[in-house]
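Let's practice the habit of predicting before peeking. Look at the sequence and jot down your guess about where helices and strands might fall. Then scroll down.
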Amino acid sequence: LIKKGPFATSSEFENIFDEIMKAVSSVSHPEGSGQFILNPTRQASGVVPIKKNFMQSLVRNDWRLERRISITSRVKPGPIDAVKKLSDGRYFSVEWETGNISSSHRALNKMAIGLLDGILAGGILVLPSREMYRYLTDRIGNYAEIEPYFPVWKNLQIQEGVLAVVEIEHDALS
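Done guessing? Here is the structure:
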């Protein structure tokens, strides 16, 4: 959605993005299967067990889980799933969607406020595809449902930062 300024092209960002993508790839379901397999029944697969490997992978790379960011607005948003402190003192954030579509909007808005306040250098929201969504908990946020709102975040007036949404998909149904 946004990729501006020196941080967006830095090796530090490349390393962070690589850590996030490796964490996504580390997700297996059922646990230890080496694949991401979902029950082919509508709304039959929970999202919390799926998120577990992702978070464990981030922690191994010095990410901190469930952290609040200090912002200047009057309303203090809830915690971010994971943040990593950067060399310049700012943070990079990542959210793995386990809530409804409203939660997806809140996650991107938290990151947007953090970018505007200069606390965050960037953030990534991980969302299931529309196909994958069918097999997860009812009304889970998904890429297709939030995509029409991308122009709102693309037009965020910042000089530097990264804001992205990563769409994930399952390997198989069983």
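How did you do? Strands lie at 2-4, 37-38, 64-67, 80-85, 91-96, 120-128, 161-168, 172-173.
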